[in-house]
Amino acid sequence: MxxxxxxxxxxxxxxxxxxRHLNLAAQPSAMEESFSFHTAQSTRDKGSNQPPxxxxxxxxxxxxxxxxxxAGNAITRLLGWGGAMALVLAAAYLIKLAYESGWLSxxxxxxxxxxxxxxxxxxxxxxxxxxxxxxxxxxxxxAGIVIFFLSIYSAHLGYHFIxxxxxxxxxxxxxxxxxxxxxMFDSDLYAFFAIVGSYSAPxxxxxxxxxIWPLMLYFSAWSIxxxxxxxxxxxxxxxxxxxxxxxxxxxxxxxxxxxxxxxAALGYQAAQLVIFAxxxxxxxxxxxxxxxxxxxxxxxxxxxxxxxxxxxxxxxHLPQLAPWLALAxxxxxxxxxxxxxxxxxxxxxxxxxxxxxxxxxxxxHAGYLELIPPDWRxxxxxxxxxxxxxxxxxxxxxxxxxWPLLAAIGLLxxxxxxxxxxxxxxxxxxxxxxxxxxxxxxxxxxxxxxRKNEGVIRLVSGALVYLGHxxxxxxxxxxxxxxxxxxxxxxxxxxxxxxxxxxxxxxMLGHSSLLLFIFSALKVLLHDLADAATxxxxxxxxxxxxxxxxxxxxxxxxERMAPPKSS
Length: 567
Known about the structure:
The protein is an all-alpha fold. The chain folds into five domains: 2-47; 81-209, no CATH class; 245-371, no CATH class; 374-454, no CATH class; 480-567. Helices cover 79% and strands 0% of the residues. The chain contains 22 helices and no strands. The two termini are 72 Å apart.
């Protein structure tokens, strides 16, 4: 019997280890616990004279609360959203209907007061229900805040019984109340609902007024209020959503109602940029949480929208100042990046990405395309490549954040490079015949500086030498008037590259000379021999034959060189 009990205990122990290894261990039943306990106790009693250790009784299991399934939560939120939006729309159309048709025999002040009382009732109900379900109850105060905004808007622009100062104070107080409610409920849903409802107020009550200055006051107050809330709540998404709605929403209303007041719209757009740039910088300083690249990607469309709206307005009314003001906006964005960087004492990848991308857009569009005359653009693009090469050779470079600037400069350079080697410049350029030669020298110099580097830089240097060959061949074609002279120049360049490759031990330079040999041979066979006289044909064939044979002789020595050691 003793042996049987010991074997059962060993078997039980092995099963427990297997279950723990497979993560299949389940809660034992009461009968299993009793059997295991008595078996172990009997084994200890018979194996030793020590008294058995008391096993503490486990506390009774509390009944599990049946959580709502995910589908039920989604349905609950959907119903809550629908109910809150219906309440907001009901209040909005009640105010609008009372304004248009005179429905309800109450005076205007009483109608607005009734709407505000209903908003207070929703906030009070939400605060009362907060103890049971805080997140779901937060929908009611959100609707109440939106109704407050609608009431203030109607009281000022619809019924005109409060002035701009009082309405502005009421909006600010409502924003402060929304901040307090957000802290009470700690709900993203509430914040988004309040932001969207606030900025949508002018669209819910239409046809009341065409004055643009009160709208500027309201939108600016909302921007400041929700920017402050974002700082206190520690969520960038709030001021970011407010930024999109403030810029796009105001532009839609301004274009439809007060298009002639362009100066006011210009000042409003600049004010929004300043408000949200300061908010982004203060957020980084307050929470010690700089923008990462994902968050920066969410800010970039807003800056792009601002740039398009601002520049289109400036170009229409102030065409001479438009490029300079666009470049000044880059300085403002750069200031909002540099101040937190200096105060925190570390690099800010997201802010640097925003600065380089926005700066690249402004430099290419406003600087290169607008300020630089067309006949100077190829020369400016020629000087851009040394700047890129210097950046690649610098010790402190960050491709993940500075790639927009490199891409913009590289794109401008490639466009001009293609026009130069094809000799298809859009306007007459002074000294155009030597531009291809200068590009070739520039590319060869860049290859000489970067050829000893490994990795990605090595690939860049390879592209430089091949593009340099194309530029050199185009320069020979444009400068030399004789077809035979062009063929001789190409062959001589190929031999020089092979000679330098042997001297420097550079296999990439030697392999690139094959491109020159191939183009030289194809030019003679397909172009020079077509309509040339017999003496010219003989001369071309002699040049190609000697060049190819000498190149093959040198190439044999280059193949014997040891391949470069991988780092």
